[in-house]
Amino acid sequence: MTTGDRARLDRSRAPFGSPLLGGANQDQRTLRIRVQLLITVSLVLANLIGAVVVAVLQIVVLPGPGLDDRTRLIAIIGAPTYVAVALVIGWTWGTRRALGVLRWSMDRRVPTAADRRATVRVPMRLTLMQASLWGLATVLFTATFAVLQPEQVATVAFTVGFAGIVVCAIAYLLTEFALRPVAAKALTNDPPTRVGGAGVLVRMLVFWSLGTGVPVIGVVAVAVFALARKNVSTDQLATTVIVLGGIVLVVGLLVMVINARATVAPIQSVRDGLSRVQRGQLDLEIPVYDGTELGLLQAGFNRMAAGLRERERIRDLFGRHVGHSVADEAVADGGTALGGEVCEVAVIFVDIVGSTTLAATRPPEEVVGLLNRFFAVVVDEIDAHGGLVNKFVGDAALGVFGAPVPLDDNAGRALAAARAIAARLPVEVPECPAGIGVAAGMAVAGNIGDERRFEYTVIGDPVNEAARLTELAKSVPGRLVASSRAAAAAAPEEAARWRATDTVTLRGRTEDTTVVVPIIDPAGVVTGN
Asked: What is the maximum span of the chain, computed from C-alpha positions, in angstroms?
């Protein structure tokens, strides 16, 4: 197995872009636990990153006077306490509300339109909750510092507000990631037909702004603070810019990596699906878990795969009716024009002996079953020798070799197929003895009928001759005869298996036909090999 095959296998086991999200058929209890755990971890991780950003910016980075005893106590005790309380509120308020919205997926209900809309909006709702909590923190700590240490108001407002923006960006991306399995369930029966909300371009621009634009604005703000405070040393300013630049790089990279993975995952699922379609695996459907143009791409792939399955089903059904070689030829060149061409063909005609009595003495269901067993042998051998079962006429079948696809040794193939049929029928379907006639020559093959309804058929002397030979075959040992012209046109190896008997004038024909029959064993049985 190559590295690429292993990668495709791994992705097929992780249909939502990551093994953390489980498989497509995971049970409801596992899905609930997984989603709740991932959302909780996502919110905790985002808030911890925000708290670290606040601490680093306030204590290490921003230039200016330090904190006094009272504000230092607030920074050391108050800020962590608020973050812990915010996490508890966020878990009880946000996570539980989100799980309430997703209750339909846990109860195995088919989602309504309202359920689908609410499910897709859960990441934004959780992000707005985070924005509310961090907005409150910004107002609360700014007001506190305005009373206790006014000169720190600007830095506190900047640090808490900046951290809140970082938390919101990371929280949105992580919760959207965590909810992919549920979003896929919501969108399975009603895939998106248009972009819901912001598209890929808007999302990329927003997260670039949050992950890179806003931090760069922070660097500019630090320079403004330094200019406003004349007592900032060069070393302090340099340290500030270096540390803040590092934060900008880390936070920006983190946001962009998560966003890039969220963008690439749906594209990768479509790419893997296309690879499987190229290998002939049409019975597949990829999960649709994105509400942007990427979700439209996933849904479009599923519609394409469904169309290919339908096309293949119709093609198979068409091939079963007219023959797969005719169907392939029709697909290749359009196959919708009336008319035909003269070509060299060999023809087998097989007709049951006493079919009227058979139908009159047996129940219809039994007659149909016998005919199906009978035709199964005929079709099997004609197909095996490269021919086409052109049509079924009641209890008879017409097989053609050499049209619509040219073959080498048409006559030899037809004769060999006839011998195989004659050998199998007495053993496998003894209730349906049949006469078999084989002829060869020039005939017209093509589409006959009207533009509104036509069929592929073969018309000419070999067809008529084979039908008449079938009538003769019903009264001879082995019930198989052919024209000497067919034996003469066959390859020497096959021609040697036949011997000439009488010359007769068949009904409806003016020319005499020299009849040949297969060489049979002492028991009077035609050998099929």
From this structure: 125
DSSP for 92-144, written as a single string:
IIIIHHHHHHTHHHHTTPPP-HHHHHHHHHHHHHHHHHHHHHHHHHHHHHHHH
pLDDT in the model for residue 11? 46
515 Cβ neighbours under 8 A, 6+ residues apart: 469, 472, 481, 482, 483, 484, 500, 501, 502, 503, 504
**Main-chain phi, psi angles of 218, to 5 degrees:** -60, -40
Number of C-beta neighbours around residue 129 at 10 A: 21
Q: Is the pTM of this model over 0.70?
A: no
Task: Round to whole Å and give the CA distance between 340 and 356.
Answer: 35
Q: Are 346 and 411 in contact (CB under 8 A)?
A: yes
pLDDT value at position 492?
92
Measured CA to CA, the distance from residue 371 to residue 474 in angstroms comes to: 18
- Cβ(470)–Cβ(456) under 8 Å? no
Q: In Å, what is the CA distance from 378 to each residue of 42, 142, 438?
A: 66, 91, 13
What mean pLDDT is predicted for residues 29-45?
79
What is the rounded end-to-end Cα distance, in angstroms, of the chain? Answer: 42
Calpha distance 402→399 (Å, rounded): 10
pLDDT for the residue numbered 5: 44
Distance CA 23, CA 18 (A): 9
Amino acid at 488: A
d(CA 158, CA 367): 89
Tell me: the pLDDT tens digits for 352-382?
Answer: 988 777 777 788 888 888 899 999 999 999 9
pLDDT digits (tens, 9 = 90+) for 88-124: 777 677 677 777 777 777 666 777 777 777 777 788 8
- How far, in Å, CA of 252 to CA of 210, rounded? 8
Other beta carbons within 10 Å of 72: 13
The pLDDT, as a whole number, for residue 422 is 92
* Closest C-alpha to 489, from 419, 433, 408: 408
User: By the 8 A CB rule, do 399 and 348 touch?
Assistant: yes
Q: What is the DSSP string of 34-73?
A: HHHHHHHHHHHHHHHHHHHHHHIIIIIIS-S----HHHHH
Counting beta carbons within 10 angstroms of the beta carbon of residue 163, is it exposed (0 to 12), middle (13 to 18) or buried (19 or more)? buried
Distance in angstroms (rounded) separating the CA atoms of residues 178 and 366: 59
Q: Which residues, 6+ apart, have CB-to-CB distance to 291 below 8 Å?
A: 120, 183, 187, 192, 195, 196, 197
Q: Among candidates 393, 431, 399, which has minimal Cα distance to 415?
A: 399
Most confident residue range from 85-94, 151-160, 188-197, 281-290: 281-290
Q: Are 349 and 389 in contact (CB under 8 A)?
A: no
Q: How many residues does the chain have?
A: 529
Whole-angstrom distance, CA of residue 145 vs CA of residue 164: 18
Backbone angles phi, psi at 211, to 5 degrees: -85, -25
